Amino acid sequence: MSREQGFTLIELLVGMTILAILMVAIFSFQQNTSDFAGSQNGVAQRLQTINDLSGYLGDQLRAAGGVAPAGTSLPDGTAAGTLASCDRTGTSPCLALLIPVVEDERGATACASTPATEPGRIVGWTLNVYRYVPRTTLEASLKTVASTSLDGAAYGLVEIRMQNPSKPVIAAGSCGTSQPLPDPISAYTAVIGRNLITDGAVVGTDPAFAYDDAKKLVTLRLRTVDLVKNKLTYTPSDRFYTLNVNTRNVK
């Protein structure tokens, strides 16, 4: 009678070694795939931030009815709101725009007693100040993440909305008085809102904002920085994204 032979100890050890090598290779492949997917998602998110910045600022510029002269004294973008020169270059580049407040359908309905009223009327103006503020001067509550590395490399892009206190901006849905033209820049002295657009902006050696008064053309130079695995990662990686916007409504 014959007896079936089992695996020898050496054969078992060789099999276990091969299995271990295969498991390591599979795990390494999965880890690399996961890292690559995470990296690509991060790039996509940072590109989306650039797209959002250019889209929002571009829309504001196209709607603007005026651009404040360089050197105008306006809030510095910090919580204290200290007045500082609004220049397009320097350590805290700044651009200020007169933005129309347009009546919506609810406002038009509230004005139903005036047959000539319809949605789309300009019923007020704000002076919107866009200023780069060193990240170190932002409140901790505004920062997306606490990081001394980012503090040293990044800026906050802050939007400050101001109004003429003698002609306050009406509440949404209220009936307003037609105001097709803005008041002089100097009339807008009251801050009505402050908004952080991003705390990962970058300021380079070239002007963040440039304005050609003859062509009514604004040039924006945008770039962001983020902390990825404790390393500063810039988007775009090697340059600034440049956007030229015609301020078609500026008189």
TrEMBL record:
Localization per record: Cell outer membrane; Periplasm
Domain of life: Bacteria
Keyword Oxidoreductase in record: no
Pfam families, per the entry: N_methyl
Membrane topology: Single-pass membrane protein
Regions that span the bilayer: 7-29
InterPro entries according to UniProt: N_methyl_site (IPR012902), Pilin-like (IPR045584)
Swiss-Prot/TrEMBL keywords: Cell outer membrane, Membrane, Periplasm, Transmembrane, Transmembrane helix
Protein name: Prepilin-type N-terminal cleavage/methylation domain-containing protein
Source organism (scientific name): Deinococcus daejeonensis
